[in-house]
Design brief:
Number of helices: 10
Order of helices and strands: EHEHEHEHEHEHHHHH
Largest sheet: 6 strands, parallel
Radius of gyration: 19 Å
Strand order of the largest sheet: 2-1-3-4-5-6
Shape: elongated
Strand content: 5-15%
Length: 217
């Protein structure tokens, strides 16, 4: 069984302990270091070059958003999973622009953390629902300022609408498009938001009305 090397970067010992126990239990991860401040993190990155850093940047005495940029410089191949209590939108926007792969809040469940770690190591983005809502809000607000016309779906979103309309469940769509199941759920949530619909049946009707699938009923 392949094990991935992980660096835990959080100034709170209890937070590091909880993450260490959770990741160790899965059997997929080796904790190569635990650090409580940016200086220790950089020193460890230089030595260990871990596959994954789990970081809480919102600890002004120890870590800051700029810590993320330093991870990218010191160990470019290391993926970054942020798990933070920060809910300030301006900070989240800044952190996402710095290139973190995934972002969870500290209210997320244990299974969600494990799913995020797996997705992040594959280079797939994984965001908790609060961050997804913020991204949608920001995106839709920007599009409204530029163009008041209905929001078009991306090519990937159209593929997911087509497969959903054919009756495929999220896992089947994920297998077909070589995506994670979580990514499919994220796309579906974005689609529902853009189209202002709330059910699978409405999604099928949309697909038929736009000619994305043949109406075989």
């Amino acid at each position: 069984m392949k094990q991935y090397s992980v660096l835990l970067a959080d100034e709170q010992p209890l937070a590091r302990l909880a993450l260490r126990q959770l990741l160790n239990q899965s059997g997929h991860y080796q904790i190569v270091a635990e650090v409580g401040n940016e200086e220790e993190m950089i020193a460890s990155l230089r030595v260990n070059k871990p596959d994954l850093v789990v970081l809480d940047y919102s600890q002004s005495e120890s870590f800051r958003p700029s810590s993320i940029a330093k991870v990218k410089i010191v160990s470019p191949k290391t993926q970054i999973l942020v798990i933070s209590a920060d809910t300030r939108k301006d900070n989240i926007a800044q952190v996402l622009e710095l290139g973190v792969t995934s972002f969870l809040t500290k209210t997320c469940g244990l299974n969600e953390i494990l799913e995020a770690a797996q997705a992040t190591l594959k280079g797939n983005k994984f965001f908790c629902s609060r961050v997804i809502d913020f991204l949608l809000e920001k995106s839709l607000a920007k599009e409204t300022e530029v163009n008041c016309a209905p929001t078009p779906l991306s090519a990937r979103e159209i593929e997911i609408v087509q497969l959903s309309a054919k009756g495929l469940i999220a896992k089947e769509i994920a297998d077909t498009l070589n995506l994670s199941t979580h990514t499919v759920y994220t796309h579906r949530k974005n689609i529902m938001k853009k189209l202002q619909i709330s059910s699978s049946s409405e999604l099928v009707l949309y697909a038929v009305s736009k000619g994305l699938v043949q109406n075989e009923i």
